[in-house]
Write a structure and sequence with these properties.
The chain is mainly alpha-helical and about 500 residues long. About 75% of the residues lie in helices and about 5% in strands. The longest helix is centred in the C-terminal third of the chain and has 32 residues, at about 320-350.
Length: about 500
């Protein structure tokens, strides 16, 4: 399969949306285009697993390598491994769910759906890129729509939120660009496969790794560069919040993982800083969430904590913890998208996100309330849901590190589950249980499009939670390859 199809499909969908004149056409084209992306991702999964079952042990499959700018040795080099494929599947699911949730959007609907699809194109391109310049290009493609979606269709202090997001993410992009230029200057190539083969000197790694890791870390809400997340989520429209948390923040986590594998010596040297920042993010995010009264802010600060588990898994630099980090990225993407979808459904009917103004919604919105509960249970890591599998894998991998300080960080991070349980159960109980106010007594439940969107995300959560071996089979061969270089760096220490 030609991986360029993952870029062509959303691009074609976006162009057709721009040419559409009626709202019904825009909706149908957006939905058909998103379903085509999901179909392509699913077919790619089948082909990938068939190749692995047939004994293909190549690091990356379905590679295409075409010269893009020969003078600077920039190539359109794409390919996937199991980790990239997991991110592609996550993106395709959230795109479909986001389009369905936005079904009733009427304000500048053409531009709105166009930007959603454009963001997804940037994400696909980022995940399949094996050339650092191409990867950076698609990263920027995914940044611009976020600013516009919040600034135009957002609520509250949307202008300030959009500007904060843009400034923070552009700062992250600038750091990434400096790091990439440093690698290029010392290797004369942007090709990640070639760089991995030739290696990068220890001095260069130690100097430029912080630029790259912190740059991508800003996208992943790494403490203390997380401040754009709460306001951005709170002001964004529902689908934009789903895309922002479910897809965009994964660009950061994925980038951090790839840079750690590309520069393993530096990653090992700075691992204690990475783990320290991750632990602070986990604890800070959990306690900050307890103080929130707005449902979107609750989920936003919770995302900071959950993304901390991704960084923690990467920082531990062993196979189990990295597997856990990848599963956590997928799990958090599905869970937080589901949470924002449920919050959007509640807000569209009650016109409030304040927990104190809600209550008893289970009586009039049983489906939406059930979705809200499932998202909450996944967030607190209840067995049977993806959150449990992801967090337990990270903890198990982290505990494998014999260093006492690292194990202390593991224990502290695991203790955050107690705090998570408190704020999730409190928010859930106050929102859907108890008496219902008169103004909310006649509200309607979810529509067909909302049920379908939630159903797709719940299926993904349950598959990982009940059959974790499926995602392990997908990502483990790729993790094995990453560990070759990482283990070599640790051994040399």
């Amino acid at each position: 399969m030609n991986l360029s199809l993952l870029i062509i499909l959303p691009l074609l969908t976006a162009l057709l949306i721009l040419l559409s004149k009626q709202l019904a056409q825009i909706r149908v084209i957006g939905l058909v285009g998103s379903l085509a992306q999901l179909g392509a991702a699913s077919w790619l999964l089948k082909l990938y697993m068939d190749q692995r079952a047939a004994g293909n042990t190549a690091t990356y499959l379905f590679e295409t390598n075409t010269s893009w700018f020969k003078a600077l040795n920039i190539n359109y080099h794409i390919g996937i491994d199991g980790i990239a494929l997991a991110m592609i599947l996550l993106t395709s699911l959230i795109v479909v769910a986001g389009i369905l949730v936005s079904w009733t959007m009427e304000k500048l609907s053409k531009e709105y759906f166009f930007l959603l699809v454009l963001l997804s194109m940037g994400a696909y391109g980022f995940f399949i890129s094996l050339d650092l310049f191409t990867l950076f290009f698609f990263l920027e493609v995914a940044v611009i729509p976020k600013f516009l979606l919040i600034g135009i269709w957002g609520s509250g202090k949307k202008e300030n939120s959009a500007m904060k997001l843009a400034l923070m993410l552009m700062a992250g992009s600038a750091l990434v660009f400096v790091g990439l230029m440093g690698i290029y200057y010392n290797t004369n190539t942007f090709d990640m496969v070639e760089i991995g083969k030739m290696g990068i000197s220890l001095g260069v790694q130690k100097f430029f790794f912080p630029f790259l890791f912190l740059g991508f870390g800003i996208f992943a809400a790494l403490f203390p560069f997380h401040t754009w997340v709460p306001d951005g989520h709170a002001s964004a429209p529902t689908a934009a919040s789903m895309f922002l948390a479910g897809i965009s923040m994964k660009l950061g986590g994925y980038g951090c993982l790839r840079m750690a594998a590309l520069m393993p010596d530096a990653a090992h040297s700075y691992s204690w800083i990475i783990i320290l920042l991750a632990t602070i993010a986990i604890i800070y995010g959990a306690f900050a969430t307890m103080m929130q009264t707005d449902l979107k802010y609750i989920n936003a600060y919770s995302s900071i904590s959950h993304c901390g588990f991704v960084i923690l898994g990467i920082g531990m630099l062993n196979k189990t913890s990295i597997n856990g980090a990848v599963i956590q990225m997928v799990s958090h993407g599905l869970m937080t998208a589901l949470f924002f979808a449920a919050i959007g459904m509640i807000y569209s009917r009650t016109h409030t996100r304040m927990v104190a103004q809600l209550g008893g919604l289970l009586k009039v919105m049983p489906f939406i309330s059930t979705v809200f509960v499932i998202a909450g249970l996944c967030s607190l890591g209840l067995p049977g849901f993806s959150g449990f599998v992801a967090e337990m894998t990270v903890f198990m991998g982290s505990w494998q590190n014999p260093d006492g300080v690292y194990r202390a960080a593991t224990v502290i991070s695991a203790a955050s589950i107690v705090v998570t349980a408190v704020y999730i159960l409190r928010a859930t109980g106050k929102t859907i249980m108890g008496p219902i106010s008169d103004e909310h007594a006649l509200l309607s439940d979810a529509t067909w499009n909302e049920k379908l969107a939630a159903g797709l995300l719940i299926i993904g959560i349950l598959i990982i939670g009940l059959a974790p071996f499926l995602i392990n089979q997908l990502i483990m061969p790729s993790t094995d390859f990453l560990m070759i270089n990482i283990d070599k760096a640790i051994t040399l220490k």
